[in-house]
Amino acid sequence: MVTMLQIRVIPCLLLQGDGLVKTIQFKNPRYVGDPINAVRIYNKKEVDELIFLDIAASRKKGIFGPRAVGPRMDLISKISDECFMPFSYGGGIKTVEQIRDILGTGVEKVSINTQAVDDPGFIRRAANVFGSQSIVAAVDVRRRHDGKYEVYTNGGAKPRGIDPVSHVRRMECLGAGEIFLNSIDQDGTMGGYDLALIKAVSSAVNIPVIACGGAGKLDDFAPAVKSGASAVAAGSFFVFHGKRRAVLINYPARAELGAVLGDPITSDTGGVTP
């Protein structure tokens, strides 16, 4: 059982082109800065882990939408060269060869979303080659009008008619080592996590679930953990400051995290692992 002191608190950074952006409910991406500069800031703040997701890499070409380009190896390599902490990358991954190239740059884990639905066997093949510890099944979820949850893919653009609970169970059986659970409804709202969704998904699997979507304050983390999340990720919380959402790349001090996750006194050698 994961204790509060073992909870990872992870900045989730969205890539579009060469820049970082932030969305609200997966729409209207707003430029928030340069990814390399953000990595340098997080290095100084001694963040233990990062998540990078390329939001355009799996989107299909539309009249006004971006074209799916797959992983940007040049940018991934630049991020890896600067990054002192482990990080995972997701976006446009469709082949074992792409995973090999990405991990070869020093990336610790890959996050697979659309391809995990289009070809679930890909998760098994990837886990067999690289180990489950390197394979994250990313699941974007939206609540329907009837109150039921549904899995979406292609950067949140395509409903798949799949229940997320049955999907994550299948991902675990196929060899995924973690679930990255993202609420489309809560994304960028800073109104708190979807606790019912976290509880339903985390209780269905025995692998770690990273909850994302909705964090707006430090106090949002503990309820997500109590609902079953093994780790919490956030975007807006780590890139915006104040009611006007001024861009400020930030990360709480370990003592602050310790206070909300159950340990008011932390040190460099013990306590919270963000």
Question: How are the secondary structure elements laid out?
Answer:
Blueprint: E1 8-16, E2 19-24, E3 27-33, H1 35-44, E4 50-54, H2 73-82, E5 87-90, H3 96-104, E6 109-112, H4 114-118, H5 121-130, E7 135-143, E8 149-153, E9 158-159, H6 164-174, E10 178-183, H7 195-202, E11 209-212, H8 221-226, E12 231-234, H9 236-239, E13 240-241, E14 246-247, H10 254-260
Parallel strand pairs: 1-4, 1-12, 4-5, 5-6, 6-7, 7-10, 10-11, 11-12
Antiparallel strand pairs: 1-2, 2-3, 7-8, 8-9, 13-14
Write up this protein.
By secondary structure, the protein is an alpha/beta fold. It has a single domain, classed as Aldolase class I (TIM Barrel, Alpha-Beta Barrel), CATH 3.20.20. It is 29% helix and 25% strand. It contains 10 helices and 14 strands. The strands form 2 sheets. Strands 1-4-5-6-7-10-11-12 form an 8-stranded parallel barrel, surrounded by 4 helices. Strands 13-14 form a two-stranded antiparallel ribbon. The protein is globular and about 45 Å long. Residues 264-274 have low confidence and may be disordered.
